[in-house]
């Protein structure tokens, strides 16, 4: 694979959205971000807006990582929620790791 094809391949994977749309991402992201903050034990430090941001970024991160094993673009609400939850927990774990190492 040439470098141009590799970049196009990764860009295509990272911008693929599921069938739930942007409103769905915000709703699912908010719930997934809130649950992820509960799982990680940092819910008291996060507000509603940050929960949504973490959940949406987690959805894209989880979707990107899971797209190598599954067809994430055709997933419905349940699969998108699970993907967002996994991605949000992973994102919060990375943030927690980086901030505690300082």
Structure, explained:
- There is one protein chain.
- This protein has about 100 residues and is mainly alpha-helical.
- The chain has one domain (about 5-100).
- The chain contains four helices and no strands.
- The longest helix is centred in the last third of the chain and has 24 residues, at about 75-100.
- The mean pLDDT is about 80.
Q: What is the approximate shape?
A: globular
Largest sheet, if any? none
**Helix amount, in percent?**
over 70%
| Oligomer class | single chain
Q: How many domains make up the coordinates?
A: 1
Sequence stretches where pLDDT stays below 50 over 5 or more residues: none
Total helical segments:
4
Measure the end-to-end span: 38 Å
* Quantity of strands, as a count: 0
Question: What is the radius of gyration computed over CA atoms, rounded to a whole number of angstroms?
Answer: 14 Å
Rounded average pLDDT: 80
Which structural category do the helix and sheet elements fall into? mainly alpha
InterPro entries: Transgly_assoc
Keywords: Cell membrane, Membrane, Transmembrane, Transmembrane helix
Main location: membrane
Protein name: Membrane protein YeaQ/YmgE, transglycosylase-associated protein family
